[in-house]
Amino acid sequence: MKTAGEQRSLRLGVLRCFGFGLALAAICGSASLSPGQIIEDIPEEMDDVAIVEHLDEQVPLGLEFVDERGNAVTLDEYFGDGKPVLLTLNYYGCPMLCGLQLNGLVDAMKEIDWTPGDEFEMVTVSINPSETHTLAKLKQQNYIKEYGRREAESGWHFLTGRQASITGIAEATGFAYEYVEDTGEYAHAAVAYVLTPDGRLSRYLYGVLFDPQTVKLSLMEAAGGEIGSPLDQILLYCFHYDAAKGRYAPVAMNIMRIGAGLAAVVVGGLVATFWFRDHRRNRMSTLGGAV
User: Fold this and answer.
1) pTM summary value
2) 146, 100 contact by CB (below 8 A)
3) Tens digit of pLDDT for each residue in 223-254?
4) What is the dihedral of CA 234, 237, 239, 240, to 10 degrees?
5) 84: closest CA among 227, 185, 184, 254?
6) Could you tell me if 80 and 164 lie in one domain?
7) Mean pLDDT per 10-residue run, the chain (291 residues)?
8) What tens digit of pLDDT does each residue of 54-88 get?
9) How far is CA 155 from CA 61, 115, 120, in A?
10) Judgement on whether residues 199 and 211 belong to the same structural domain of the protein
11) The total number of structural domains that make up the chain
């Protein structure tokens, strides 16, 4: 039996839920939008916005850009040292989506023990050819401050460039976007690219929220397992990438194999311990008898 207070709280909860349902129904009813109308309201500019995956294809590393310090650079300067590269295509004047995506990456990177410049490189390229390295530098400073790891400044590069180079990297990564003249903004998707140390596309990470484990395992996979601690290598062995969910899922068979291996090691250790104890006990008994 519930007490009077509990019954009163339950009734109030039901009434609140009922009231919320009525309010929601009223909002939906006043909108009076059918699925067909919603689809018709999608801007025409979005028709050509898409991502076409080019997995395992080579990105042209000779493309020329300008870094946040105003220096002329090519993409190959961020590859070739054995480190994977995390690449994003954004623009620094973006009013919403780019900031959400980069903030999401920062949040994920805060949760892992790897830092741009150490275990991997990070490159953000502006798709707006009118943006300058001064704005790129400002954005870099803002995100490094938010990240909280000052040493990452040498490993997270913010680039600007001419339209030809922007088009080159966009086409190579399958990043289709459109410039909206009415607003002066760009319609584009949110995706981060994980590339191998030699510049091949290894993984596409979609959205504005990123699972830290997925980011780390994607970088490990791109590097061919050449980075990470022994424990990280075990995690990479135990997980496979689930494309439908956009994250790594555990592989039961691999986990069972590792479990069986650990069990064998433990059992072997116990057997060895007992053997040494018995051997020592027998030896002591023999010595005692000899005395």
Assistant:
1) 0.68
2) no
3) 885 555 555 555 545 555 566 666 656 654 44
4) 160
5) 227
6) yes
7) 44 37 35 40 64 96 98 96 96 96 98 96 98 98 98 98 98 96 94 96 94 92 68 51 61 45 47 59 61 50
8) 999 999 999 999 999 999 999 999 998 899 999 99
9) 17, 8, 8
10) yes
11) 2
How far apart CA 223 and CA 82 sit, in angstroms, is 7
Helix axes 212-222, 230-238, angle to 10 degrees: 100
Structure tokens at 162: 């001419």
Cα separation, 286 vs 289, whole angstroms: 5
Quickly tell me which residue has 């995506």 as its tokens: 101
What SS3 class is residue 13? helix
Is 35 among the domain residues?
no
Angle separating helix axes 97-110 and 212-222, nearest 10 degrees: 80
- Find the helix packing angle between 97-110 and 133-147, rounded to 10°: 40
- Let me know whether 186 and 264 are in one domain: no
Structure token pair of residue 86:
């995390």
DSSP 113: S
- Is 202 inside a domain boundary? yes
Residues 142 and 250 in one domain: no
Q: Are residues 140 and 163 in the same domain?
A: yes
Q: Could you tell me the residue range of the domain that residue 68 belongs to?
A: 47-228
Residue-wise burial string across 79-108, b where 16 or more C-beta atoms lie within 10 A, e elsewhere: beeebbbbbbbbbbebeebbbebbebbbeb
Specify whether 184 is located in the same domain as 110.
yes
State which H helix or E strand residue 30 sits in.
helix 4-31
d(CA 124, CA 136): 9
Count CA within 13 A, CB hemisphere, residue 73.
Answer: 18
